Amino acid sequence: MIDDKTKTELEAAAFRRLVEHLRNRTDVQNIDMMNLAGFCRNCLSNWMKDAADERGVPMTKDESRELVYGMTYDEWKAKHQKEASPDQQKAFTNQQKH
C-alpha cells in the first residue's frame, strides 16, 4: 500500500493530466460531458474552489475557472462553446443533478 503523501501526489498528477486533456479537447462541450458523465469543466472548477474555501485559501470563482480552462471562462466560451442543440438541452434538463 502507498503512503498518504504519495497517494496525494498521484491524485494531483492525475487531476493535472485530466485538466490538460480537457484543455486540449475543446471539441468536447460541457453540456455533452454533463449529459454523459454528470460533470464538466465548470464542476471541476467549482470543486477546486470548494477545496480552497475548505482550507481558507482565497480563490474566486473566476480564478478557479481559469485554473481549469487555462484562460478566462469568457475567453473559452467565445473561442470554443457552441450553441446547445434542443436534444442536448432536453437531455440536460432530464438528467439527475449531482
TrEMBL record:
Residues 86-98 have a biased composition (Polar residues). Transmembrane segments: none annotated. Residues 78-98 are annotated as: Disordered. Residues 28-93 form the SMc04008-like domain. This is Alkaline phosphatase. It comes from Terrihabitans soli.
